[in-house]
Amino acid sequence: MNKKGHVLNAVLLSIGLGYILEPATELAAVPATLETMVMIAVPVTLGAMVPDIDTAFGKHRKTLHNLPLLLAFFVFPLHFGNLEFVWIGVLTHYVLDMAGSRRGIALFYPLSSTEYDLPTGVPVSSRYATIVTVLVTGVELILAAAIVFDVPRWGLEVGRQAIGM
Ligand SMILES: [Zn+2]
Predict the structure, then answer these.
(1) How far is the CA of 108 from the centre of ligand 1 (A)?
(2) Ligand 1: distance of its center to the CA of 43 in Å?
(3) How far is the CA of 55 from the centre of ligand 1 (A)?
(4) Number of C-beta neighbours around residue 2 at 10 A
(5) What is the pTM assigned to this prediction?
């Protein structure tokens, strides 16, 4: 996808994630939800811009489109206490490139230059690129909601059974 697509993906994803993490069930809770959306949207959008910096140096869809870079952004906040949520932007960039466009990315670069792709997506220049971006974002939000809402419940069930409750 092009820069416009990645920004659209990051902003829509952040709006959805903000609602999933801080759902407003009444009017008084709306400011907290909006604040969560902004808190997530800024670092996620910045993160979504990072991979395509490799159009300027290195090898595009390789140098800054790989799992080691994603891991680095994931552990950075755990160690240094800042750049939280940037990894989500990097991850969603990878997902959109793999699921939304025709060319894959070199997940294991620099160990391997093989590009991995999903059998979905349209050419970056396609007039359907925007709708595909929105669809990919929707699937990401369904998965995120499943993780946020179902995994803790499932963990609780397993925990309960483990201690025989
Ligand atoms: Zn890219």
Answers:
(1) 15
(2) 17
(3) 9
(4) 13
(5) 0.91
